[in-house]
């Protein structure tokens, strides 16, 4: 199978990095200018950049912020791992088995159609307000999105390579790693990215609706106090953390899986 591998993806050069950085800086600057213009014409209803920056500094210098942040990240990690593992497993089985897909497809469609807050509202009414109840609702809300991506990737695999594996009687490990793995690796990474994206959004919603502590709870508390500058500051902290995860984890993983799958 090594002969089938294409040329390696060249590393990102400083020139390419700068070329990608310039549009990002321009976009952020444009957003800042538009936001500040709206803030200046909103009679104080929309906080300006200075007020948001002041809130951000105050929140970052408050010790309790880091306790809430660690708690939210722990919940995020649990939900991400559980939803990714379950979603990839269910999606892969659906891609291989038509009967299992026929059984699961209506459930996945229903799961995709249910609004996210409904998971938590029903969980609160039926199971109580304990943290593990909210986590269960969170995981159930994310799984359908991962299943959909994994199922699509496995179903769209090259069936000719499956036939070739049977004809040449390739060892099971060779088939799973070199034949199937190379095809679905990019889909698996995309499903992981989807899982993380939905997990961090829904974990904030879960904390706002069901928990007294965490970043989501603090955002809801700022909402109750009519402090939009604090709400935006908390959201910016989480966005920056997710961006760091994207650059440090998923971008290198994308390059490695893209290189390996060729």
TrEMBL record:
Membrane topology: Multi-pass membrane protein
Regions crossing the membrane: 20-38, 76-95, 107-127, 133-154, 231-253
Predominant place of localization: membrane
UniProt-listed InterPro entries: MetI-like, MetI-like_sf
Keywords (A to Z) from UniProt: Cell membrane, Membrane, Transmembrane, Transmembrane helix, Transport
One family name in Pfam for this protein: BPD_transp_1
Keyword Transport: yes
SUPFAM superfamilies: MetI-like (SSF161098)
Positions of the ABC transmembrane type-1 domain: 69-249
Subcellular location per the Swiss-Prot or TrEMBL entry: Cell membrane
Secretion signal span: none
Family: Belongs to the binding-protein-dependent transport system permease family.
Protein name per UniProt: ABC transporter permease
Species the sequence originates in: Nocardioides aquiterrae
Lineage, top ranks: Bacteria, Bacillati, Actinomycetota, Actinomycetes, Propionibacteriales
């Amino acid at each position: 199978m090594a002969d089938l591998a294409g040329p390696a993806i060249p590393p990102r050069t400083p020139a390419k990095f700068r070329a990608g950085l310039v549009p990002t800086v321009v976009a952020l600057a444009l957003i800042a200018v538009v936001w500040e213009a709206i803030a200046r014409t909103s009679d104080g209803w929309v906080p300006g950049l200075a007020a948001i920056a002041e809130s951000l500094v105050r929140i970052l210098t408050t010790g309790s912020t880091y306790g809430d942040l660690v708690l939210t990240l722990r919940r995020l990690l649990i939900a991400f791992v559980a939803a990714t593992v379950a979603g990839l497993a269910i999606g892969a089985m659906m891609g291989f088995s038509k009967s299992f897909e026929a059984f699961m497809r209506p459930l996945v469609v229903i799961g995709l159609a249910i609004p996210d807050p409904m998971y938590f509202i029903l969980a609160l009414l039926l199971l109580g307000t304990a943290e593990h109840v909210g986590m269960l609702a969170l995981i159930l809300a994310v799984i359908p999105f991962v299943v959909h991506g994994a199922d699509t990737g496995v179903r769209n695999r090259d069936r000719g390579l499956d036939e070739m594996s049977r004809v040449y009687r390739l060892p099971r490990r060779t088939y799973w790693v070199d034949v199937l793995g190379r095809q679905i690796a990019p889909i698996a990474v995309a499903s992981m990215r989807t899982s993380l994206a939905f997990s961090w959004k829904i974990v904030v919603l879960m904390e706002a609706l069901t928990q007294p502590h965490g970043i989501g709870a603090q955002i809801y508390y700022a909402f109750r106090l009519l402090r939009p500058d604090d709400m935006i500051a908390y959201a910016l902290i989480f966005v920056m953390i997710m961006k760091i995860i994207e650059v440090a984890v998923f971008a290198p993983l994308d390059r490695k899986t893209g290189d390996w799958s060729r």
